[in-house]
Amino acid sequence: MKVGFIGLGTMGGPMVLNLLQAGHEVTVHNRTRAKEEALATAGAKRAESPKAASLGAEVIVTCVSDSPDVETVVLSQNGVIQGAAAGAVVVDMSTISPKVTRRLAAALAEKQVQMLDGPVSGGSEGAQKGTLSIMLGGEAEAVAKAMPVLEAMGKTITHVGPIGSGQVTKAINQVIVAGTYLSVAEGLALGMKAGLDMSQVVKAVGGGAAGSWGLTNRSENMIKNDYPLGFRVRLHHKDLKIALEAAEELGVTVPIAAYVAQIEAGLMARGFGDEDVSAIARSIREPSGLG
């Protein structure tokens, strides 16, 4: 399929490589144009704007940082809405406000362009391996059109409801991730202070009810107190703010998510905002005397 792809960061770049490997014809654009170069070497075409990347595309993917960024990419003078043809499908794989998602979908519908919100989970590893979990909101017809593109990037692809539902589902995901990372950090700190062999501890508890993606994939970071980038603290904090806003609107109490958001704000203030979100463990290690 002909695909336009806007946003080539930690997630977007590897996702484009998987699309190319699957045989799709991909035109890319990124605000920092230098990020297009490696993908052009791999076979992608380059475009000078989101509008240009959208021209002739059957599916247009956006993968940028926050709600204002998506609004600019889609609705600006050189945005997707100016280049997308009637019948095209826009898949926003960013994590943004459900309200903004619905507003963008309504604007695109006036041009007879369908939209899906398709935020993802699985981190940079999932983006590289093409094993992301993709949470889709929108019409079934649009899901079917976009499926060949989605299948090149994700392993678990779930249509959860109408437009905006994907973003609400991602908010749920980030609330659960917040609690999981904090509890993993607490448990590991207990083991380290007791002088246990932590590789054996992780093996033991990971095979039982305490097993989780966070324990399997991020416990080593927490034990070593080293947090190489997978998903930035500041981006998870942005996602949690979206989740907290949704919870307030719906009248749902989310105390753990609110507490982790405060922890992340503190980490960002100390200059750790670009570390992996497993750096939440710093907030447990330090007062526990683990450095």
Written description of the protein model:
With 291 residues, this protein is of the alpha/beta class. It has two domains: 2-162, Rossmann fold, CATH 3.40.50.720; 168-285, N-(1-d-carboxylethyl)-l-norvaline Dehydrogenase, domain 2 (Orthogonal Bundle). It is 52% helix and 14% strand. The chain has 14 helices and nine strands. The protein has helices at residues 12-21, 37-41, 50-54, 67-75, 80-83, 98-109, 123-129, 140-151, 165-193, 198-206, 213-224, 233-250, 255-269, 282-285, and strands at residues 2-6, 25-29, 45-46, 59-62, 89-92, 114-117, 120-121, 132-137, 154-161. Strands 3-2-1-4-5-6 form a six-stranded parallel beta sheet, with helices on both faces. Strand 1 (2-6), helix 1 and strand 2 (25-29) form a beta-alpha-beta unit. The radius of gyration is 20 Å and the shape is globular. The chain starts with a strand and ends in a 6-residue tail after the last helix. The mean pLDDT is 97.
